[in-house]
């Protein structure tokens, strides 16, 4: 009780003093919060939606007090550019929170660690051996074989009259693709128990990353774990730790088999004995694998699921996509990666999905290292930054009829050159600047390739009497609250549906 009273008094004093100090500076406009908790109550269950509504009242740069911390929200392309390009270095760190502490080994990963030598080493190794241009080209055959396994599973489901659960199928496929790069082998049966268990682990981890924990904003009461989130985080971390320890043991025992062609985990383990200044630890490698096996799978999976959902809901779009593929590819073979540059409508569908259903609606948070000025407003040191990518994608001042799913908008002259590469701030699903997602290029290739293969290879049928649910489930990735489960009908000859 004494500790609680002390916390209440000190936090109230903090608010009073910070308010007086702020009077000498022009903070961005924002809602007037309550004592101690600030504007936490305004975030609701869907913070990206709540913040988008608030920005309509307070403007494109908005400041909120959330417990003990200040947060600034950018909600337009121009303000996003100011923070993520002009002020990029000042906002190059991530704020600590329970998820990064308990799920990625106290921020030993690449996504949530501070900008510095260890982060640069992780990014360098990842770009060079897994997600960079040459590495992506070298792994084209791996992607082709894995998509063949996916087609086999889907074809078998169609013959047996079973529904295809899109998220489970995609997540297993992408996880196997990633595991072949990291471990030189497939890990999951895309239709089996192992895949479902892994998907459940990924789903829970991504949910916990995006969950609201009051202790992240009121650190003095974090130890109470009021909602039991920290306990759940520790439990799911143990599950991943067991999985990784098993991977490590098996990999050390078989290293001699890969002397001429080491995989990504071999490269990371060799870096543990690097005589140079920076070395990796077990925690660094495990945390990086969490990044790869969760964010790398869940974000792409959610994008594919949203795209298919929108296309099934809009049969004209699905028919146009299939007509384009039939003309370019024909119906005697499957889609190849080399076909994608010749499929502008498919590319437009992917861009439109990123616009309306960004996998990371609030981007990953950043924090200012020094005070700065943005759009004439003072931003104090230690202010947390969220860029509301979801709000930018639905802004009528940026996009015509923003609530309509219309890929044709990206075929028009004014939008055709807009790409999700981090330079066009109207469309930044992977973020921008030095903390932009390192897997953006690989993610884009997998999205276009898997989605195109699915659409070209099958027709998609919603069981009679069922409606398509469009509700969102907020987490680190913005997934569907009700998974898409549909009947698929083959469009191509049976010989096409194989791994070869």
UniProtKB/TrEMBL annotation:
InterPro entries from the UniProt entry: Cyt_P450, Cyt_P450_CS, Cyt_P450_E_grp-I, Cyt_P450_sf
SUPFAM superfamilies to which the protein is assigned, alphabetical: Cytochrome P450 (SSF48264)
GO molecular function, one term: oxidoreductase activity, acting on paired donors, with incorporation or reduction of molecular oxygen
Annotated positions binding heme: 437
Keyword field contains Membrane: yes
Cofactor(s) the protein needs: heme
GO cellular component terms, A-Z: membrane
Record-level GO BP terms: secondary metabolite biosynthetic process
Lipid bilayer topology: Single-pass membrane protein
Location relative to the cell: Membrane
Keyword Transmembrane found: yes
Top-level taxon in the UniProt lineage: Eukaryota
UniProt keyword terms in alphabetical order: Heme, Iron, Membrane, Metal-binding, Monooxygenase, NADP, Oxidoreductase, Signal, Transmembrane, Transmembrane helix
Signal sequence extent: 1-22
Family as reported in the entry's similarity comment: Belongs to the cytochrome P450 family.
Name of the protein in question: Flavonoid 3',5'-hydroxylase
Species of provenance: Aquilegia coerulea (Rocky mountain columbine)
Lineage: Eukaryota, Viridiplantae, Streptophyta, Embryophyta, Tracheophyta
């Amino acid at each position: 009780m004494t500790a609680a009273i002390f916390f209440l008094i000190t936090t109230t004093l903090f608010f009073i003093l910070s308010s007086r100090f702020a009077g000498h500076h022009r903070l961005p406009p924002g809602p007037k919060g309550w004592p101690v908790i600030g504007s936490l109550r305004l975030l609701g269950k869907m913070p990206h939606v709540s913040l988008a509504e608030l920005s309509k009242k307070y403007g494109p740069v908005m400041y909120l007090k959330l417990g003990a911390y200040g947060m600034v929200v950018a909600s337009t392309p121009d303000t996003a550019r100011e923070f993520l390009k002009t002020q990029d270095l000042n906002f190059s760190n991530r704020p600590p929170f329970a998820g990064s502490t308990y799920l990625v080994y106290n921020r030993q990963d690449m996504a949530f660690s501070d900008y510095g030598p260890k982060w640069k080493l992780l990014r360098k190794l990842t770009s060079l051996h897994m997600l960079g241009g040459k590495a992506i080209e070298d792994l084209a055959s791996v992607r082709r074989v894995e998509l063949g396994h996916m087609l086999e599973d889907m074809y078998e489901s169609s013959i047996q009259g079973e529904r295809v659960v899109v998220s489970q199928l995609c997540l297993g496929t992408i996880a196997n693709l990633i595991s072949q790069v990291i471990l030189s082998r497939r890990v999951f049966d895309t239709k089996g128990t192992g895949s479902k268990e892994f998907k459940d682990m990924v789903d829970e981890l991504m949910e916990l990353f995006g969950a609201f924990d009051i202790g992240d904003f009121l650190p003095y009461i974090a130890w109470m774990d009021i909602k039991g989130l920290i306990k759940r985080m520790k439990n799911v971390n143990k599950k991943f730790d067991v999985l990784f320890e098993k991977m490590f043991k098996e990999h050390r025992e078989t290293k001699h088999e890969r002397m001429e062609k080491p995989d990504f985990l071999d490269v990371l383990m060799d870096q543990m004995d690097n005589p140079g200044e920076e070395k990796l630890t077990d925690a660094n490698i495990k945390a990086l694998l969490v990044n790869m096996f969760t964010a790398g799978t869940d974000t792409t999976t959610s994008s594919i699921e949203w795209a298919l959902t929108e296309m099934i809901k809009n049969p004209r779009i699905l028919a146009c996509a299939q007509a384009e593929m039939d003309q370019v590819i024909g119906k005697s073979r499957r889609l190849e990666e080399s076909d994608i540059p010749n499929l502008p409508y498919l590319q437009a569908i992917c861009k439109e999905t990123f616009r309306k259903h960004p996998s990371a609606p609030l981007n990953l948070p950043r924090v200012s290292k020094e005070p700065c000025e943005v759009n004439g407003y003072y931003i104090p040191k230690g202010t947390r930054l969220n860029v509301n990518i979801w709000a930018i994608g639905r802004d009528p001042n940026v996009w015509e009829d923003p609530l309509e799913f219309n890929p044709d908008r990206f075929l028009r002259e004014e939008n055709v050159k807009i790409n999700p590469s981090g330079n066009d701030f109207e469309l930044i699903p992977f973020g921008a600047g030095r903390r932009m997602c390192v897997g953006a290029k690989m993610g884009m290739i997998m999205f276009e390739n898997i989605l195109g293969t699915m659409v070209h290879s099958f027709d998609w049928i919603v069981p009679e009497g069922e409606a398509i649910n469009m509700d969102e489930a907020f987490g680190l990735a913005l997934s569907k609250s009700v998974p898409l489960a549909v009947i698929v009908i083959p469009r191509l000859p049976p010989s096409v549906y194989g791994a070869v």
